Automatic annotation (TrEMBL):
This is RSE1/DDB1/CPSF1 first beta-propeller domain-containing protein. Coiled coil: none annotated. Residues 13-106 form the RSE1/DDB1/CPSF1 first beta-propeller domain. InterPro entries: Beta-prop_RSE1/DDB1/CPSF1_1st (IPR018846), RSE1/DDB1/CFT1 (IPR050358), WD40/YVTN_repeat-like_dom_sf (IPR015943). It holds the Pfam family Beta-prop_RSE1_1st.
Length: 135
């Protein structure tokens, strides 16, 4: 599974985005303060509990091979770069109006020299991997 932190929701909070095969899962981290039991005490005597809550699940026609989050100029939330087998790349962002992903652009690299794994011989194929400066 591939995972990435991204600002996807309407609230501006950072979410955990996990890609598993042909599904994309978006989780929110909930912070619950509660009085603690004997064994769970911090300096104030109160417990702190964090839970991941699944807030969205999206399906794709194809397996997600790689994922990166990017901040596009003028955007309120992050976009996701999703790469798929056979040198396909999608740029998507969350649309709070429809509670769905909106495709901003699709790319297909037809030239063999632009595909990752070109020239490695016989049946060698490396899935397209996304890299950007720092995470």
């Amino acid at each position: 599974m591939r995972r990435r932190a991204a600002c996807m929701g309407a609230s501006g909070d950072r979410n955990l985005v996990v890609a598993g095969t042909s599904q994309l899962y978006v989780y929110r981290l909930n912070h619950d303060s509660e009085t603690s039991s004997k064994g769970d005490r911090n300096t104030e005597g109160k417990g702190h509990k964090e839970k991941l809550e699944l807030v969205a699940c999206f399906s794709f026609f194809g397996n997600v091979m790689s994922m990166a989050s990017v901040q596009l100029a003028g955007a309120k939330r992050d976009a996701l770069l999703l790469s798929f087998k056979d040198a396909k790349l999608s740029v998507v962002e969350y649309d709070p109006g429809t509670h769905d992903l909106k495709t901003l652009s699709l790319h297909y690299f037809e030239e063999p020299e632009l595909r990752v794994g070109h020239g490695l011989g016989t049946d060698a194929f490396l899935f397209p991997m996304l890299h950007r400066g720092s995470y």
